[in-house]
Amino acid sequence: MRTVVMGSGGLGGYFGGLLARSGADVTFVARGVHLQTLQERGLTVRSANGNFHVAVQAGADLQEHPPAAFVLFCVKTYDAEAAAALLQPVINPDTIVLTLQNGVDMATALQGLFGRGTVLAGATRIGSTLVAPGVIEQPTTHRLIEFGGLTGQEQAQVDRVQALLTVAQIPTVVSANIQRSLWEKLVYIAPFSGISTLTRLTPAQLLADAGTRQTYRAVMQETATVAQAVAGVAPEIVAQTMHHLDTSGDPGDSSMAVDFQRQRRIEIEAINGAVVRHGQRVQIPTPLNQLIYHALVVMDRHNRQAV
């Protein structure tokens, strides 16, 4: 399958690198010195699952590129519209797009932006970072992709993508209800990203103190209440998620907190903002997520103005 990786940072770089290493026909879309490094020196991955280096095809635009059979869509949520416009020349009715973005709304939005092809939604909790041009660090053993179709009518497309990922030794699970799976992930990341960015404390530090742990769990419970109403997430999700956090070791830093520290734009709209918007839609109060959301919107604006 002719593949395009849109968003060649930590997430797209790692999974796209595995696809390229497996022999798949992969083109990375990148820019600046990262693009130049990919073109001249290839992609280097330092991973808990095994280091590797692979020569890759990379470019800044797709105007002269043939249609893509598969697109791995990994850009930040606030760049989705611009990235979708860049992809338009290679999207045809047979193209399959798998989005691995944060939040719960991007797959539906992309299907509307493209107007053709099939968009599948996916979720992964991998830790992976672009640490230098052409260099990815992936320190966690967890790298599972859970994905599925939006309507239940995409089984042929799901099977094709799962086969491609399996050849690349990327573990997958096909979700019978991907929208519920996305909300389960949002229950995890709303406090993980939101509180850690707001307080500049790591999730491990927040969970180790009784007071901040209580607040962490309250934000998670508030998110879960919305998730139950919107997507039928099980009431046990909070207990299960807290148990996971307590037993799986240090979860590391949230990507949103890292972006804020580096004075990059943060994905607050797709994370805590989504909880607030959907809570309003189903008339469930979300005061804790509202506080995090409104504070970080202002902080993000001032933080980037200081650059």
From TrEMBL:
Catalytic activity, EC: 1.1.1.169
GO MF term (any one): 2-dehydropantoate 2-reductase activity
Domain Ketopantoate reductase N-terminal as annotated: residue spans: 4-148
A Pfam cross-reference name: ApbA_C
Gene3D superfamilies, sorted: N-(1-d-carboxylethyl)-l-norvaline Dehydrogenase, domain 2 (1.10.1040.10), NAD(P)-binding Rossmann-like Domain (3.40.50.720)
Catalysed reaction equations from the record: (R)-pantoate + NADP(+) = 2-dehydropantoate + NADPH + H(+)
GO biological process, one term: pantothenate biosynthetic process
InterPro entries, alphabetized: 6-PGluconate_DH-like_C_sf, 6PGD_dom2, ApbA, KPA_reductase, KPR-Related, KPR_N, NAD(P)-bd_dom_sf
Keywords: NADP, Oxidoreductase, Pantothenate biosynthesis
UniProt keyword Repeat, yes or no: no
Domain of life: Bacteria
Pathway: Cofactor biosynthesis; (R)-pantothenate biosynthesis; (R)-pantoate from 3-methyl-2-oxobutanoate: step 2/2
GO CC annotation terms, alphabetical: cytoplasm
Coiled-coil portions: none
Chain ranges of the Ketopantoate reductase C-terminal domain: 177-296
NCBIfam families in UniProt: apbA_panE
Function field: Catalyzes the NADPH-dependent reduction of ketopantoate into pantoic acid.
Record-stated family: Belongs to the ketopantoate reductase family.
Name recorded for this polypeptide: 2-dehydropantoate 2-reductase
Species, as recorded: Tectimicrobiota bacterium
